[in-house]
Amino acid sequence: MKILEEIKKLCLSRYNLSVLGAQVGIYALLVSIWSLVIMLLEHDVNAAKESMRVNAFVLFLLLIVFMANFYLLVPYLFEAKSKLKHWAFWVINLLFIILWNHHIFSIYNDDLPNAPIRIGFYQFGVMWMILNYAMVVAAIFVRYYIRHNTLRRQLREEKQKMTEAELAWLKNQLNPHFLFNTLNNISSLTQTSPNNAQKAIGQLSELLRYALYETQPKEVSLNGEIAFIKNYINLMTLRSGSNVEIKSQFIIHNSQLLIAPLVFLTPVENAFKHGISANKPSFIHISITEDNGKIVFLCENSNYPKNDTDKSGKGIGLENMYRRLELIYPGRYQIEQRISQQTYHIKITIKPYKR
């Protein structure tokens, strides 16, 4: 019963039904074309009917050989790892082909009038055996092609699932990291400017709403992302002193552009984290522009690296961003970074997918 269930499942699979439909279609097409050729050449309806009858019978024999191998012999014998089953496959095929075609091979020499015709019959027999075995080989190759495509599709699906899982993990890392850095900044405000700290908490709630609820899709509106970055800059500006120059510019002509959510957040965070000194002149310049369908993010800031004793969220930001860009925009992004004369520069160019 188990074997019958497996055979039923095998025969009713989508790929196998497609092959069956294609084979029946080819069979009907060949019979019809050959009958039409006879009709056009002989101008004889009876000859065309006889041709259809003969060719329908002959091609049906070949079709059954193919189907028997495709559905049964190849999957259960040829594709098995046992050498004994491999040998059984070819022996069974030989016996099956001979028995299935016995009507063609049952013409006795006494029925053939002379030697030349008998020689022609022998040649026909050899060619007919080769043609039958061609059906066997065709069944092997068709099954190999289907299995190969199925494996490729499964691997592609598994890779996609792994990529999505990794992106989800990276995103889940990003939100706590962002929250940690922001709370760290608000914490310092509670001591120096309680009023600004209260205002910052209100702004933080708006940022969290976007980060937690608006960034669930794989891509979000670029305008929405820019609004988030503007709010973040305004929040961070509250704790910046008069010695810090903060400039931002956003020029987007195509309002339909989409971008991966929070992809530019890390360099903006790092600019406020590493670009501001308590007693030295500092600057942060941030821009997002559109250039021939490409999104260009640019951030330049003074660079005052934190020392080893600073524990304010060190480590995962940039590495997380690089990995996300590679997973989401492989071959469609560029990153330029440089540090010169205590100035940090990063430029990210992304070519979004067309919709």
Automatic annotation (TrEMBL):
Keyword list, A-Z: Kinase, Membrane, Transferase, Transmembrane, Transmembrane helix
Organism: Prevotella fusca JCM 17724
TM segment ranges: 20-41, 56-78, 87-105, 125-146
Domain Signal transduction histidine kinase internal region: 165-242
SUPFAM superfamilies per record: ATPase domain of HSP90 chaperone/DNA topoisomerase II/histidine kinase
Record carries keyword Transmembrane: yes
A GO term from the CC aspect: membrane
Superkingdom of origin organism: Bacteria
Keyword Transmembrane helix part of the UniProt annotation: yes
Name this protein carries in UniProt: Histidine kinase
One Pfam assignment: His_kinase
GO MF, any single term: phosphorelay sensor kinase activity
InterPro entries: Bact_2-comp_sensor_kinase, HATPase_C_sf, Sig_transdc_His_kin_internal
